[in-house]
Give the backbone structure.
Amino acid sequence: MNQLQLETLVLGPVSTNCYLAKNRVFGAMLIIDPADRADAIARKISGMGGKPEAILLTHGHFDHIGAAQELKTRYGVPICALEKEQEVLSDPVKNLTCWNGSGYGLTADRLFADGEKLLLAGFSFALLHTPGPPIGSTCYYLPDEQVLFSGDTLFHCSVGRTDFPTGSMGDMHRSLHEKLFELPDETEVYPGHDAVTTIQYEKRFNPY
């Protein structure tokens, strides 16, 4: 408990939250959803004194992956995502990069399975497949730290858009009620956009 040192950078054209999760004991660090501005992310990493171990993607939309390839090269670390999201990552239409003017695909180096248990940077993770935004969206849950990185599945009093390719409001509803709202009430939720919240608060006040 309390091994997590967490810093947030708000980056990109739609104010995406990029999280840097450092293990206070080991110094290892995870880069979660590197939106863009690899230079700014690298400066923050240097200031925290962390050693990146992996890049974790909650999903493959352009505003969450912009700096992933550059940071992978810079630090020699793998890009990781849920296996079902490779379809979105590799397709410029589905990952929306073509909307942003560049149009490129990205290949994850490591693909996870739904429900897989991980040990990364000294943290125990549970992967929760939460389709609804794109089909391969995943939330990263750290039970020992009581923290959830929710990507675009759950926001403060809202949810992500489901009108993009492979999105589904029916899937979103099931992801919220059958997975995320089953987590402990005290779980802190770090979303892909907007403010930090808790599972308890969202269960009470989120209109979805």
Summary: The CA atoms of residues 90 and 105 lie 4 Å apart. The chain has six helices and twelve strands. The longest helix spans residues 38-48. The chain has a mean pLDDT of 96.
